Amino acid sequence: MDLHIATITIIAANVLVSLRGFRDGIFFERYKFGIGAIQAGQKERMFTSGFLHVDISHLFFNMFTLYFFADVVINWFGPSKFIIIYVISLVAGSLLALFFHKKEPYYSAVGASGAVTGILYAAILLQPDMQLGLMFIPIPLPAYVLGIAYLLYSIYGMKSRLGNIGHTAHFGGAIGGYVTTLLFKPGLIESDTIMVVLLAIPILILFALEKMGKI
User: Fold this and answer.
1) For 190-194, which contacts have Cβ atoms below 8 Å and span 24 or more sequence positions?
2) Does position 32 have pLDDT exceeding 80, yes or no?
3) pTM of the model
């Protein structure tokens, strides 16, 4: 698969910033997502944290996922809208993390996961019949099944504080990708109503749980 220049640019930005962060602890600390620092006025962290990673495997997994789904979005929308979806998803992930962790001044996070999940969710919305395979599942599954399952798992992760993973940013990124895709292609609401509703279910569940104080 030939990579589009837009995808190469995003991957290069992630690699360069992450490598700098691996070598320079002061740089990493200054630009990571940190609730206390953001509330004190360093709003740029909501964007810059999306290009920092904890280690090579964290960086590789995010860029590998982007590699698989970027072309779907670019083929439908072109590179400019692809980059817009990426950036909006990144910021949406940070905004949701800020909303859910606003009373935790020491909460911090890094990684492109929110932005990449937004691209993944956009790709699923555009091509829900895609078949995706996972290493531990021997048969390919429809993309929308895995997309919904992933967000439900993210809700569980947020509720139980599972692992050292930014589940909230993943979820926020998915919301960003979902909403922006529908803004760019509102015809999907009419042509693929069932899929649009199905993919909205985990989002509605999350905010219902939040309203009830269950998360």
Assistant:
1) 192/125, 192/128
2) yes
3) 0.91
